[in-house]
Amino acid sequence: MDIIQTLAQELDKNPQHVENIVRLLDEGNTIPFIARYRKELHGAMDDTALRTLEERLQYLRNLEERRETVKKAIEEQGKLTEELSAAIDSAKTLAEVEDLYRPYKQKRRTRATAAREKGLEPLAALLLAQERDCPRPEDAAQAFIDPEKGVETVADALQGANDIIAETLSDDADIRKTLRGLLTRQGRLRSLAATEEDSVYRLYYDFDQPLSKLAGHQILAVNRGEKEGFLSVTVLLDRDAALPLMRRAVVKPGSAAMEFIKAACEDAYDRLIYPSLEREARSTLTDSANEGAIGQFALNLKPLLMQPPVKGKVTMGLDPGYRMGCKVAVVDGTGKVLDTAVVYPTYGERQKKEAIVTLAKLIRKHGVEHIAIGNGTASRETEQMAVELIRQVNEAGAHVSYMIVSEAGASVYSASKLAAEEVLLRYSAETGAEVFLYRLPHIFGKWSRPDYNSAVATFCHRTARELPVTIQNPGQLLHLAYVDDVVEELLRCLAGSPNRQGKFCRVSEVFPITLGEILALLAAFVRSRAEGTLPLLDSPFAGKLYATYLSFLPQEELLRPHVMHEDLRGSFTELFRTPDRGQLSVSITRPGIVRGNHWHQTKAEKFWVIQGEGMIRLRSPGGDLLSFPVSGSCITAVDIPPGYAHTIENRGSADLVTILWASACFDPDHPDTYPQEV
C-alpha cells in the first residue's frame, strides 16, 4: 500500500504536502508546531486537518501491520492460499481484516464444538435443512451411533445435533436482530428485594418498568442496589412472544424434523440467546444512564470550575481523606500547579507531625498565603492540623490564613475521565503495570437514544418518522465510531491485542463525515423504501448508518406488501429494484402453463426455480434449442443471455415458483422485450 497516495486521495490533499507532514511527524514534531511554523511544507493546513491526517496515518500503518500479522498466523496453520492472501492485502479496514481472520482464530470450547468432534455436524445439517424427504430424527440418528466417539445411543446423537443447531441459531444475525428489537420494544426491568433489611433502595424492592421508559437515575440506582446485595435484578421478555419469531425464521411446516427443530429453537433461546441479550440490554441501559449522569455532572461542575482563583496569591489546597490520605496541591495566582504532595494527618500523632513538617516546607518554598480545605470526609481533623500548622509558620514570620471550601467541584473532577487517565498513567509509571487508555469519539449505532446527546440517533429517529430535521451548519465535521466496532476493539484489548497509538488505544475504524452527508444518506434510505429499491450501501459507514436507521423504524412500517400482478397463468411480483444492479422478482406459474416466448436485446436474466418441477428452454440467435429441467428439490441458476428466446413450463402438479433477476429494471416505455416462439 502506498500510504502517501492513499492519504492524499482520501483527504483530497497534495501528495507532496502529505509526504512532508508524514516526515515531520516521524521526526517527532507536534501538530501545533507543524501547523504554526511549517506552513510552507503543508500548504497552510489547519490543526484540525493535520490531526485528521495524523490519525489516519496511524490507522493505515496499523492496518498494514495487522495484515502481515494475520497472514503470518494463517500461514503457520498451513491454510494461507493465494486468494486469501490477496483478499487480506485488499482489505480496506481493520474490521475487514479481522473478518477474514475470524475462521482461523482459536475459539473457546463449547457443547457444539464437542458434538462436531464426534462427527455429528452432518446430522445437524440434515435436520436443520428440513427437506421434504428428510427422515425422522430418530431414524437419521441411527447412522451416527459410534461408541468409539462417545455417541452410544440415538439420544446421544440427537443431543449433539441439538447442540450444534442451537449454536448455529444463536449465531444467526437475523434472529438476534429480531429478538433484540422485540426486547427493546417489549422488555421490562424487574428488581426485587434480595434481603429483608431496610435500605435506601426500598423504592426498588418491587420495581417493574418497561426498558423504553426507564430513567437514568433508576438504572444507576438499581445497579448499585444489585452490586451491594440489596436487589435481585432481571430483564423480562415474554417467552411466548419470542419463540414464534424464531420458529418462523427456521421451522419448515410439514417436515419430519419440525418438532426437533422447535425444541432446538427453545434450547438456543433459553441457553444461549436470551442470556446474551439480557447482558446486552443491561449494558446498553447502563451506558445510556452513565452518559446522562456525566452530562448532568458537567452542567453542575462548570460554574464551580469557572470560579476565579484568589488573584495574585499562592494558595495551598487540601483534599481531606482517611484511607488514601490528604492530597495537597499548591497553585499560583493564575491557577498554575507549583507542587503536589500526599500527607496522612489522620493516621496518628506521629503522621500528623510529619504532615505539618511537609506542609510547612511547601509554604516556605512557594510563599503560600492561603490554605483551602475541602469540606468532605476528614475535613474536621484536617482543619485541626491546619490550625496548628498556621500557628507554627506564622510564629516564624509567615502570614497564612485558611478557609473551608466546598469540594463538590473537586469531587466531580476527581471522578472525571481526565482525572482517571492521570491516575492510571501515574499508577503505570510507578508500578510498571500495563494500562490501556481510550478516548472514544462519538459513538452511534442501533437502538441508541434520540433527542439526547447523539445527532445520528436523533436524525435517524426523526427521519424514520418523517419528522423535520434542521441543522445550522451542514459542513460540521463529526468523527463517528460504530458501536459494534467499539465492542470489537474492547474485546481485542481484553485479548491483549489493542489498537495502540502512542499512550492511547483507538477504535480501528472512525468515520469522518459531515452533518449534511449524514442527512443526505438518510434521505436516500427513505427514497429507497418509498420506491421499492435497495439502498446503495457503497461504503462501510453507509451500511452501518442503514442498520441504525432501520432500528428506529416504527413497527407498523416493517411490513410492506408488494403488488402482485395475477392472471390465469399465475402471478408476477417485483420484489425490489437497485440503482445499479437490476431488479429481483418472483413468478408463480400454474400447472401446465408455459410462460415467456420472448427475448431481450440488452437485458440479461437469471432464473432460480425454488418450488415445483419445470423445464426452461432457450433458443440461441443461431437457432440452437437448449432444454434444462429445473426443480425446487435441486435449486440451480439458469443464465438467460441477451438475444436468447426463452420459456419456462410448469411440468408438475403444483405451482412452480421462480426467482428472477434482471440486469436492468423494467421500464414500460422501453421494455426491451421481443416475442419469439421457442
Radius of gyration: 34 Å
In the CATH classification, which architecture of the domain at 439-556 applies?
3-Layer(aba) Sandwich
Number of helical stretches of at least 4 residues = 23
Net shape: elongated
**Largest sheet features:** 6 strands, antiparallel
Classify the helix fraction into a percent range: 40-55%
Could you say which structural class the secondary elements and strand pairing correspond to? alpha+beta
Low-confidence stretches: none
Mean pLDDT: 87
Strand order of the largest sheet: 15-16-17-24-19-22
Beta content = 15-25%
Q: Remind me, CATH topology of the domain at 439-556?
A: Rossmann fold
Mind explaining what this structure looks like?
The protein has 678 residues and is an alpha+beta fold. Helices cover 46% and strands 19% of the residues. The chain has 23 helices and 25 strands. Strands 15-16-17-24-19-22 form a six-stranded antiparallel sheet, with no helix packed on it. It is elongated. The model has no long low-confidence stretch (mean pLDDT 87).
